[in-house]
Amino acid sequence: MAAAAIHCGKAKPFPKMLDGKISLVLLLLLLAAANAAPSSIVGNLRFREAPQFYNSNGCPPPINPSTEYSSSCPSSLVDVAMTLDVAYLRGSMAAINSILQHSSCPQSIYFHFLASSFTIFLNSTISSIFPSLPFIIHPFDDSLVAGRISTSIRAALDRPLNYARSYLPRLLPTCVNRVVYLDSDLILVDDITALAATPIPFPAALAAPEYCNANFTAYFTPTFWANPSLSVSFEGRRACYFNTGVMVMDLERWREEGYTERIEEWMDLQKRMRIYELGSLPPFLLVFAGRIAAVDHRWNQHGLGGDNFRGLCRDLHPGPVSLLHWSGKGKPWSRLDAGRPCPLDALWAPYDLLQPAFPIDVDS
């Protein structure tokens, strides 16, 4: 089980070197630690403080930013869960910014972040960007899934943190019965309250936009489909593809049905015989496809990252848009920095909180 949640704290400095004596091994360890510091991973990026957003009339009382979950949950309007990875931190900050900007009750949203490293750094960074944000960081133990992960078509999909969403019912306090899970490469242009209120009729424990025109069979290997004892898993249900980057989860029902354990069983089988290729998605499909509550497609205009093809730009799906999702290989911040943005990347840019390298004096 993961360690206790972290809400605040300060990083400790390196210890002093006594009498000028230090072993070569220790010196190498210190150098390695310095090279692995978060600032080197994110390229010394600096973020500016986000604007403060306030509740409209009729909203629940604002949540105190220092509030922590204990035996009872605050009366928040919406619980939101996201993973935090320093490599995707810029995207995460833009996503949070977009959620707050378009919410009628931004002070009544509680954020649950899952992180497997640099939790103190991430805590201080979020607090400096969003000083009034009610949030908590739940440390995720990579060892929960490290031995169950099989290599996939893209190395980025094999990081243990990609599988943390399967453990939300264990990591979040048991008083949290419903949570909206969101990836880091998206922005909302609508009020998250509407998404959080999605009905999840019994016996479903999950709601997400479904895409039944997708080639569902392509997500599993010929070995899977050729084995009757495996392919029968989808018998009696209309199994459709859904993207796990946007989900509304009934955690109470999930815990009762032991869905985390079911996902783990499929991952264990994958280690013995290869039945799928695409990271953390297929186990979700095996457990939930055809058994979820439908969400309008407006809440996941996905694929804007161009799938696995570098430089491929995508258009929006037909219909209204409430959420834009740059799933796939191309991320808007990378393409903007490289000077080769796709047209829709301009919709992400206004939510970017990156501090310019050379501040511009608008009064001069």
Automatic annotation (TrEMBL):
It holds the Pfam family Glyco_transf_8. Pathway: Glycan metabolism; pectin biosynthesis. Keywords: Glycoprotein, Glycosyltransferase, Membrane, Signal, Signal-anchor, Transferase, Transmembrane, Transmembrane helix. The keyword Glycosyltransferase applies. It is found in: Endomembrane system. Its EC number is 2.4.1.-. It is an enzyme of class 2 (transferase). It comes from the Eukaryota. One of its GO terms (cellular component) is Golgi apparatus. One of its GO terms (molecular function) is glycosyltransferase activity. Residues 1-36 form the signal peptide. Its main location: membrane. InterPro entries: Glyco_trans_8, Glycosyltrans_8_dom-fam, Nucleotide-diphossugar_trans. It is a single-pass type II membrane protein. Belongs to the glycosyltransferase 8 family. This is Hexosyltransferase.
